[in-house]
Amino acid sequence: MEKEPRSLVFRATPLICLLFLSLLYTELIWLLYTRHCGSDQMVGNQEFRNWCSIRSTGKDGQGINDQEHLNFLLRRLVRGEDQTQLDTTGFACHSDFHTDVCVASRPVRIDMRTMNVYATFSRGIPQANHIVRPYARKADKIAMSFVSPVQILQGNITPPACQYTHNVPAAVFSSGGYTGNLFHEFNEIIIPLFVTYRPLQSRLRFIVTNFNPPFSGKFKKVLSHLSRYAVIHPAADQSVHCFPGAVVGLHYHDYLAINATDIPGGYSMLGFKQFLRESYNLKVVNVSEMNKPVLILLSRPKTRTFLNEDEMVTMMKALGFRVVVARPHMMSNLDKFALVVNSCSVMVGAHGAGLTNAMFLPQGAVLVQVVPLGLDWASASYFDGPAKEMGLKYVKYQIEPVESSLLTLYGEDHPVITNPASLFLKGYMAARAVYVDGQNLTINVVRFRETLVKALGLLERSAPLG
Questions:
Q1: Could you report how far apart the first and last alpha carbons of the chain are, in Å?
Q2: pLDDT for 91-149, tens place per residue?
Q3: Residue 247's closest CA among 36, 429, 449, 99?
Q4: What is the pTM (predicted TM-score) of this model?
């Protein structure tokens, strides 16, 4: 009776080993491809280049081999007359106040040394060359000074020879601009990436100009969820790549916003939050899944600092919250911090980039924004409306002058206190130096308690918490 099971185990062992070796081989092949295909190792090695080209369909072998299917996917990125032009000529550009986006639905060559895109299929068609800075803040001269141009060359021109060939389109964007600030990273890159490229169903290959290693590392999970292929870093690549089509630039809708009617598939901010849950493997979808209210307090050490933070935390705990104080070292690893935020039901913070982390809160959670002096418009535009579109409840705590360190510096009758708009008339940088970089806060905990009681009431209406 004891020998038969042992015999079955020994019979199954070779099969298990073969299965394990097969899986290991598949992963090793994929690792080799993602680390080396498109890298400097391929230059001058024809055999290796051929191997990579065969595997350029991706890990599961699903590239875009049908030109008609490619055209269908790419034409979803343009609208109206632009779509008609794309159908007719294979090339169209959209331009608005915020951004430029050019789409080629026919084969192109991209020289990574110069970031010239050769769209030579347009010979005989009277179209001008285009220069695109692929970052969604076109009107901001400071931001765009950190964004290199991509030139799209058309007409009767001889392109350089291909060194690598792909069967998915290129997607070109810049990680220059205001990277390093979480709000700007989401507002001008991550959400526009989702808006622009989600309809391509991961069948694209990113080319990232002004390559920023910290940015790519921070958002590795997002980039890999939008594309199943390794990112190309032009400055490190220095080669000529051929693609069946290309998109240069990013569509943009508004501050931390998505207009569902402007993109195919009807994607919204709720859809974007679902995308983030998938990317970061976030488990909590709704606050109804939580047993006790957990409040995360964003602690700022330099500007807009809560000078009586300990007093605030004591009051929060007395209300029944379990309090997590998030300091910069905790927020530095976005992969881990997203999980922390997703376990919370209330986020409290002074106006600033850290509030962008509210995207990781579960549905029905409450965002409490403390609005410093002079920052009413920015607070409302950047987080009030967007929070509601994300399925969050929103509560504003407007500080009084006595709660701002500016009162001591300027006195109660100074225009900085009585008329912040007058300082903004002198220019944004002058106002920023005072209200953004030069202001700290001492919160009236008695008055602020009323705000948190309101937040608790909103939570209970979303889902009763024990």
A1: 53
A2: 999 999 999 999 999 999 999 999 999 998 765 555 678 999 999 999 999 999 999 99
A3: 99
A4: 0.84
Q: Are strands 150-154 and 130-132 parallel, antiparallel or unpaired?
A: antiparallel
Token pair listed for 383: 């987080």
- Residue 346's region, left for phi above 0, alpha for psi from -120 to 50, else beta, is beta
Query: What is the enclosing helix (H) or strand (E) of 6?
Result: helix 3-36
Place of tokens 């992963």: 27
The edge-to-edge listing of strands for the beta sheet with 346-350 is 322-326, 294-298, 346-350, 366-371, 393-398
Q: Which two tokens stand for residue 165?
A: 């060939």
Backbone φ, ψ for residue 114 (5° rounding): -115, -10
Q: What are phi and psi of 34, to 5 degrees?
A: -70, -30
Render pLDDT for 342-369 as a digit per residue (tens, 0 to 9). 999 999 999 999 999 999 999 999 999 9
How far is residue 370's CA from residue 206's CA, in Å, rounded to a whole number? 38
CB-based contact 211:246 (threshold 8 Å): no
Structure-token pair, residue 179: 């990277």
Are 357 and 347 in contact by the 8 Å Cβ rule? The answer is yes
